[in-house]
Specification:
With about 120 residues, the protein is mostly helical. It contains six helices and three strands; from the N terminus they run ααβααββαα. A three-stranded antiparallel β-sheet has the order 1-3-2. Strand 2 and strand 3 form a beta hairpin. The chain is globular and about 60 Å long. The N and C termini lie far apart (about 40 Å).
């Protein structure tokens, strides 16, 4: 999809499939957190407010399946599992961090717009 093309791809389009994976809220947070280096499952769970153990597991599996995150299991008792970004996953850091910076800068304006909208639509 080129910058001038505003048409959304068809539902079976490979671009949409990739955007569905990297565009969900948990994947974005996981990728941003792993940008600082490997993390254990429990570290990720504590760092991501509101994510359930099941959703974190499913999201990490999906990211691993897509080649964005690698999982390393260490034969210790209890077993230790580390997750880290792959080379492909690291290529997502720049756009994700840019999006986070944009959100940080524009959050007050978005909040004001929401409040104005809510006031205008109260009934």
């Amino acid at each position: 999809m080129s910058p001038g093309n505003t048409e959304l791809p068809a539902h079976d389009c490979p671009i949409r499939e990739v955007l569905n994976r990297i565009g969900d809220k948990w994947s974005v947070l996981i990728i941003a957190l792993l940008g600082d280096g490997p993390r254990r499952f429990s570290e990720l769970r504590r760092a991501i407010d509101g994510v359930s153990q099941r959703m974190l597991t499913l999201t990490l599996r999906g990211l691993e399946r897509d080649g964005l995150v690698s999982r390393t299991m260490y034969p210790t008792i209890p077993p230790r599992v580390d997750y880290e970004l792959t080379g492909l996953g690291r290529t997502l850091l720049e756009p994700i961090l840019a999006l986070a910076a944009w959100a940080d800068v524009h959050r007050p304006a978005i909040q004001r717009a929401r409040e104005e909208f809510d006031r205008a639509h109260e009934a």
